């Protein structure tokens, strides 16, 4: 009598421990990949934010420099019917009259002069402009936020005696319509630190020349 034998096929696979180890390794790799991706995205956001802030700062510096360098000795009447000097500086803000506000062929019913003010409010550098110099009680300025992240700003005024003052007019023998020789602006900007700029006022030399001519007999 023949003996029959049954052959049981052996199947190979992963044990539970092997599966757990594989999942553990996969989890570690996933955490590493996620962390790396998060860091890359964070770095990209910081670069984009810094680039945007730098672009805003460039625009602000160009506008401020243009306004200051085109200052002229034209006093105004504010909306409280009070006479204000051509330039009014209070340490952390400045207000001035500037020329060069283009009006080709006088098509717009306005002057080529513009009243401009700079100040920091709630961490934002604000530029205010008035399209009329002698204002009515209802006259309101146009307000524009130039940049954010400003913790402080200060203006210093270089007088003709080569002394810096924290306000203008300085209250000495200076004529209230006389302009300083230059204005120094110092801003403390988030992520950039302290930034200082100095702009000269060409109209000052013309004003001095005019005064000397008038004074001659």
Describe this structure as you would to a colleague:
It is a single chain. This protein is an alpha+beta fold and 217 residues long. The protein has a domain of 144 residues: Pili subunits (Roll), CATH 3.10.610. Helix content is 31%, strand content 29%. The termini are far apart.
Biggest sheet descriptor: 5 strands, antiparallel
What structural class do helix, strand and pairing data support? Answer: alpha+beta
Looking at CATH, the homologous superfamily of the domain at 61-103 and 112-212 is: GSPII I/J protein-like
Could you tell me the number of beta strands? 11
Q: Roughly what fraction of the amino acids lie in strands?
A: 25-35%
Say what the CATH topology of the domain at 61-103 and 112-212 is: Pili subunits
- The strand order across the widest sheet is 3-4-5-6-7
Identify the overall geometry: elongated
Rg estimate, integer Å: 33 Å
Our count of helices gives: 2
Topology pattern, helix = H, strand = E: HEEEEEEEEEEEH
If classified by CATH, what would the architecture of the domain at 61-103 and 112-212 be?
Roll
Distance between the termini: 151 Å
Q: State the share of residues found in helices, binned by percent.
A: 25-40%
Extract low-pLDDT stretches. Answer: 206-217
Q: Averaging pLDDT over every residue, what do you get?
A: 81
CATH class (first level) name of the domain at 61-103 and 112-212: Alpha Beta
